[in-house]
Amino acid sequence: MSTSAQVDQLRARARHLRSLSGKIGASHALSVHGLAGPDTWVGPTPQSCYDALLAIRRQLQAQQQSLNGTARSFDRRADELESQPPAPRMVS
Amino acid sequence: MGLLAYDRARLDALRIAIEAARDDLHRIRSDDSAAAEAIRIVRNSCRTLGDIHLPRVQAVLNSEAMTSGPRVKLDGTGWVFATDPQPVYGPQLPGARSFDEVLSGIRCGELVPLAAPIDANGRAGSLYTSIALAPGNHRPVGQQDLTSDALKLLNFLSDGLPVGWRETQTLTISYLTNARVTKSVHVLTAYDRDSGPDTLIDETEEATMSGYLVIHQASATGEVSVSIGPGEQDDTLSYPIISESSTRYSGVFYPDYAPDFQPLTGEARFVNPDRWTFTTSSAPMVDGWGTWGL
């Protein structure tokens, strides 16, 4: 694969991962715990539900960070490839 | 059975929000290998919302008290009382889960894993991290033999064959108290597998935390044996003349609370020897290291 194709592929993957992170961030799963607090219901089941929804939020946010971090590393790699001098060509 | 109180309108809004969250997560898809862990978490969360929490909320909304029980007003809001399907034990104490409860907590997403180490994806010169755990105190929670029947049969047959292969797989859960967790940063370059890669000390972070360590261990032994003594002998009485063993492990750590990683300080202090070290590489990068994930 040529360098420019590699760069394009890395950039596309970075964009895709950022878009995925954005979709996770925009999902109701990150805010649903706000409706599960003691204003809505109180008791052992409500408490465990609230804790679990909060845990889901933490997990998804951790994955968002991880996806963004991987996207950054793809972009860095693409930058490195772009900054490399072109390979010398054989002239006959 | 305990009692729970709820506001019908708000609980109905919660039901709708859980449905929307489940549908949002259901629509998130990716075939990129770099997103595999994120997609796994998204699928688990989707299942937890749809299979556990939505039915619970729906069950409370459909309960007897909803349609025929007493209505009690508190501070002007409409509260309804219903029987809580869960016993009134309160939150579970850290480290008090049984083996099955830990597995159940993992499946339903209640136990949150430590963020996976960063992978260099095989690119020379890229940064990657390793996570090392040095337990302060270590309590076994339980162990399960995951060796398949076929491997058990092979193990049995190896007793009577001149060339044998023995393989076992176990899932072990331990509760680590005040474990020192070190997140080291490395650069992917050529290195000695015995001594391991160089570490960027300035970027290394550590934290002390307690939680469940789930380890999947696989050990294999290949043997070439000879019968003991001259003449006709019992096939199972043999002596291994060549024996090669290998052990590999993979695992995940589930801390009780979100970790607070801090940069390493230069102060001299006692450091426990690391017992477990993980990277996300599919093959262990250094002898004695394992792979993050189950």
N-to-C SSE series of chain A?
Answer: HEH
* pLDDT averaged residue by residue of chain A: 88
What would the average pLDDT of chain B be, to the nearest integer?
A: 78
Fraction of residues in helix of chain A: 55-70%
As a percent range, the share of helical residues of chain B equals 10-25%
Structural class of chain A: mainly alpha
Give the structural class of chain B. Answer: alpha+beta
The greatest interface here is: A-B, 46 and 60 residues
List the strand order in the largest sheet of chain B.
4-6-7-8-11-10
Report the principal-axis shape of chain B.
globular
- C-alpha end-to-end distance of chain A: 23 Å
Give the ordered list of helices and strands of chain B. Answer: EHHHEEHEEHEEEEEE
Would you give an account of this structure?
- The complex is a heterodimer of chains A (92) and B (294).
- Chain A is mainly alpha-helical and 92 residues long.
- Helices cover 70% and strands 2% of the residues of chain A.
- Chain A is built from two helices and one strand, in the order H-E-H.
- In chain A, helix 1 (3-26) runs antiparallel to helix 2.
- Chain A starts with a helix and ends in a 9-residue tail after the last helix.
- In chain B, 26% of the residues are buried.
- In chain B, helix 1 runs antiparallel to helix 2.
- Chain B has helices at 8-27, 36-61, 64-67, 99-107, 149-158, and strands at 2-7, 71-74, 77-84, 127-134, 137-145, 163-187, 205-227, 238-255, 262-263, 276-279, 290-292.
- In chain B, the strands form two sheets. Chain B has a six-stranded mixed beta barrel. In chain B, strands 1-3-2 form a three-stranded antiparallel beta sheet.
- Chain B has 294 residues and is of the alpha+beta class.
- Helices cover 23% and strands 37% of the residues of chain B.
- Chains A and B meet through helix 1, strand 1 and helix 2 of A and strand 1, helix 1 and helix 2 of B.
